Amino acid sequence: MRIAMVVLCSLCLFAACQPAGNEEQKPLVTTTVKNIERVLMHEPGEYTFFYTNPQDPKELLSFRVESIRKLKIFQDVSSEEKSWLTIVSRGGCEYSCYGVESLEIHLHFAEEINGAGWNHGKFGRGQTTVIE
């Protein structure tokens, strides 16, 4: 009985210590968010975007992107169009996306990026300020 209990506990411990899943094995998914109205940079690699709801043009929705491996910002949007972004991540993104492989932000001008607050808990908090 004692041996069976030791074996059972060992199996449970072994199973609990296994990694949940390898992120590198998940397929790459490309997500495009259109009609960007506002871009907030909390700190490098951490952004919040506000975009117009496709079902209700009066409503703004937010989308947060964190931990970006590769960031590209383009000033290639004409004055008649709205800004947009493309995210490549492992797994899908709905309202937020963490661990992003690449983020491309397409703006009219770089000045559209606004500073935003950040909070590192007991290590401090503050506000990112845009330097012109």
What does it look like?
This protein is mainly beta and 132 residues long. The chain has one domain: OB fold (Dihydrolipoamide Acetyltransferase, E2P) (Beta Barrel), CATH 2.40.50. Helix content is 11%, strand content 50%. It is built from one helix and eight strands, in the order αββββββββ. The protein has one helix at 2-16; strands at 28-43, 46-52, 60-74, 83-90, 96-106, 113-115, 117-119, 125-127. It has a five-stranded mixed beta barrel. The chain has a two-stranded antiparallel sheet with strand order 7-8. A hairpin with a 5-residue loop joins strand 7 (117-119) and strand 8 (125-127). The protein is globular, with a radius of gyration of 21 Å. The mean pLDDT is 80.
Topology, pairings included?
Blueprint: H1 2-16, E1 28-43, E2 46-52, E3 60-74, E4 83-90, E5 96-106, E6 113-115, E7 117-119, E8 125-127
Parallel strand pairs: 1-6, 3-5
Antiparallel strand pairs: 1-2, 1-4, 2-3, 4-5, 7-8
Task: Explain briefly what this protein structure is.
With 132 residues, the protein is mainly beta. It is built from one helix and eight strands.
Q: Which keywords apply here?
A:
132 residues, mainly beta, OB fold (Dihydrolipoamide Acetyltransferase, E2P), 5-stranded mixed β-barrel, two-stranded antiparallel ribbon, 1 helix, 50% strand, globular
Q: Mean pLDDT score, rounded? A: 80
Radius of gyration: 21 Å
In total, the number of strands is 8
CATH A-level architecture: Beta Barrel
The SSE order reads HEEEEEEEE
Strand content: over 45%
Determine the oligomeric state from the structure.
single chain
Which fold does the CATH topology refer to? OB fold (Dihydrolipoamide Acetyltransferase, E2P)
Terminus-to-terminus distance: 73 Å
Q: What's the CATH C level?
A: Mainly Beta
Computed structural class: mainly beta
How many helical stretches? 1
Order of strands, main sheet, comes to 1-2-3-5-4
Shape: globular
What is the helix fraction of residues, given as a range? 10-25%
Poorly predicted sequence stretches spanning 5 or more consecutive residues: none
**How many structural domains in the coordinates?**
1
Q: What does the largest sheet look like?
A: 5 strands, mixed, barrel
